[in-house]
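Re: that chain you flagged

S.,

Sorry for the slow reply, it's been a week of failed gels. I finally had a moment to sit down with the sequence you sent. For the record, here it is as I used it:
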Amino acid sequence: MKERCYLAVDLGAESGRVMAGLWNGTSLRVEELHRFPNGPVDVRGTLRWDLLRLWSEILTGLGVAHKKYGDAIDSIGVDGWGLDYVLMSKSDEMLGLPFCYRDRRTEGLVEEICSLVGKDEIFARTGTQFMEINTLCQWLIHFRRSPEIFAAADCLLMIPDWINWALSGKKAVEFTNATTTQFYDPEKRGWSLDLLSRLRLPSGILPSLISPGTDLGKLLGEVREKTGLGPIRVIAPATHDTGSAVVGVPASRSEGRGPNWAYISSGTWSLVGVEIEAPLLSRRAMELNFTNEGGIDRTFRLLKNVMGLWLLQKLRARLDEAGSHHAYGDLVGLAAAAEPFRSLIDPDDHSFLNPRDMVQAIQTFCTMTNQPVPDTASRLARCILESLALKYSVVLDSIEELTGTKIETVHIVSGGSRNQLLNSFTSSACNRPVIAGPVEATAIGNILVQARACGALGTGQIHEVVRNSCDLHIFEPQPSESASWENARGKFREFLDWWYRV
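Prediction finished late last night. Pasting the structure tokens below so you have them in one place:
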């Protein structure tokens, strides 16, 4: 088979990439064509995304793709983070720079929304975990503060869906991204219009919903002229980056009662979950604050958001500001040599969502919880990595409780899968084998959904292709450390119980 090329635009909160996937009929190889930085911009005290700059960078990457692969390119697909949205007018003008989910304007809105509708009812209608960064909270405060913007709005698109519109001219929201909003009904498989009505939000601006693998048409003429590309197809993959990352997990679907493997999509956030056939909307799932996000082939991803390597990113940034410069690898090396289990944090405490000073936030948390205060880069990094691994173990125990199935293996994919120390900690904390890789799971998942939509592979082949195409690394719990980690798990659970009681 002649090698074919599929392009993936993969947008993350810290960087974006244009990737090429080369498919020879048996295996896939992935090549980075253009990488560019990303991050929210502070505009008069609000955090916004510079979406037009991202679009310019994407065009640059598509130009590189054309020069390298030309007529071998069959299609392009876009994935990115969830939650954030773009408002558009009837004449297709973008109404303001989109907000970043870490903007502080939504603080306290979860409690208010639950008082207006009721927590049980919201979860029953959406199956979504309660976080102030959810699109529902963002939309409510945006509508209240800027009614004139919504008066002019004709359409709401999630960030990757806006890029798909710019490529194809098609306005739609893809299923996996829709499920991050907290106003998608997983049982009715449509927008939760009743919920929006209860909150007096204008649901008429919501576009149609599409499934992963939907063909959005050919690349627009103006984009072809700018980049040199031909009339390639624009295919919507799982546009939520975690949805695409789970497609890129090198595991086979389990048989029988439920999933026997879990995934951790490890990056700025750590998404810890399992793939299930139907949403789990039980009261216990709500109490444990799990969410049901969409997957390919009408599946759902039962998961929890854990704060993730954002903690290490912000620690590094603060140390840089103080004149102590460390690469990520340096911080991990320092953590490896530090005293174990000296200080622990709950990675998901609100104080770590967007602190101005991550060092101070960690030290304050440790002071308030009567623990030794980490006072060096090594101790701070060790605290973060051990706390993440222990939090993963808590989440996995909750997944087993909710699904009634034993999780035998943990797959860690995406950028965080390169962090060997965290992988080792996770294996020990969870007392299970960890399979790390692929690093490019999100782009791989994006590309393989495109390839399948173009008829290049069959329905059940995707996970097999991933296994055949990637180098994987296995981490096993170390028997010599089992007692120490067992003690740490007990300490961590007691600590969480105490912290949330007070």
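What I noticed first: The longest strand covers residues 28-37.

Talk soon,
D.
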